[in-house]
Write a structure and sequence with these properties.
Length: about 180
């Protein structure tokens, strides 16, 4: 079954977003998450995807719904991962797609990851966004990362260091930066 962007946004809108958790800087609307995932769909389908700082797992679950081979949601907050697992099960009930066979949840610091993947998707904490971007560039061939627009020069420098081409797409007051090797 093909999943179009509007259907993906609808499914993601029914999942808990973690907006009541103090560690999350803000919750992205499901339409924005679906737009990012749909932009990334060719680097998600049949690929290994890491969602660094996954929070409640909406990027990870959306990646699984778009046909990822395996998805790893990494976060340091147990309660967020518990919500991600609940969201995963709820999304299965909504769609009939067995994302529990695809999604893997890990309680650890995303900056300690050393495994390689095809694609990294993240909305990193603002206080650590450059370190998250560098980690994603280190482990992934394609990176989709949300940052404030004023970070662009530093992100471009990092992308060049890792031999990646950086492009961008605008999302309200944030920018989606896409790096590909």
């Amino acid at each position: 079954m093909a999943m179009d962007k509007s259907k993906l946004a609808l499914i993601l809108s029914k999942l808990a977003d973690g907006s009541k958790n103090s560690l999350l800087q803000l919750s992205l609307p499901s339409e924005i998450i679906a737009k990012i995932l749909y932009t990334a769909r060719k680097t998600i389908k049949n690929k290994i995807v890491y969602n660094l700082g996954c929070g409640t797992g909406r990027f990870a679950i959306g990646s699984a719904l778009l046909g990822a081979k395996a998805v790893y949601g990494i976060d340091i907050e147990r309660s967020l991962l518990d919500t991600a697992k609940d969201n995963m099960l709820y999304s299965q009930n909504l769609t009939g797609i067995r994302v529990s066979n695809i999604c893997n949840w890990q309680l650890k610091n995303a900056l300690s990851i050393n495994e390689k993947c095809d694609t990294a998707i993240q909305f990193p904490p603002i206080s650590n966004d450059i370190k998250f971007f560098a980690k994603a560039l280190e482990i992934a061939k394609s990176v989709y990362s949300i940052h404030k627009p004023e970070r662009e020069e530093e992100l471009r420098r990092l992308a060049r260091k890792y031999g990646c081409i950086l492009t961008k797409d605008f999302l309200h007051d944030m920018t989606l930066f896409i790096a590909k090797s």
